[in-house]
Amino acid sequence: MSFFLTPQSKTLKSVSLAALLLLIGLFDSTEAQSGRRAQPLKPTSTPSSLAPDAPNTDLPVALPPGGLQQKVHLLIGRQPTRKHLQSEDVIFASFVKRLNLYTNLAATSIGDLKHTDAVIRARTEAESFVVLLSFEIDSFQGGTIILNSPDLQIEYLVLAPQTGKKQTKGKIYFQAIGGGRMRKSDWPGGTPIRITPEATGIEAADYVYDWLRLVEIRKRQPPQ
Predict the structure, then answer these.
(1) What is the pTM of this model?
(2) Alpha helical stretches, state H, 51-136
């Protein structure tokens, strides 16, 4: 057996080697086009919805010691003005939203009501208080009548279930920016004045909540 390659065998070997290299090249090209070797992209940042320790703005506000211990349900009615200003809607929505932020307190809107209707509704309730938020155009300021006044006087009234009797009431002024004459603040003894509808609704809601806390504290006190 000869260990020397003949010219014919050398030619066959060269052809076979070339064919092998061609097949390898085609295989690599196919893999590159199919994307098998492509590395998956990693996100550069964590999505906000999955970020750890993301604050939840819908959680109830933290309450100081002495907050409501029992659940209370409020039915909120509204008595709008004849003009039904847009600020009335904002104040009412802010009022209901603020009350629902407190722990153990649920407020449900029951639509537009007059005072008589609110009393009747309270008498039909077994446990829920009825709260009426009444709006009035504040057109008489400092002895002057303000035509087309955007300012409002808001009164909140809490009615007892079963009896419909008045439990507490209060008043807040909404003084629109660029409105009539600015009212003089008589704080802390006078009627509160707020210049944004959102703050006005929050102020009224906090007064109602403070009254509910006071009632519950009195109930927990032992009889004398």
Answers:
(1) 0.66
(2) 86-101, 115-124
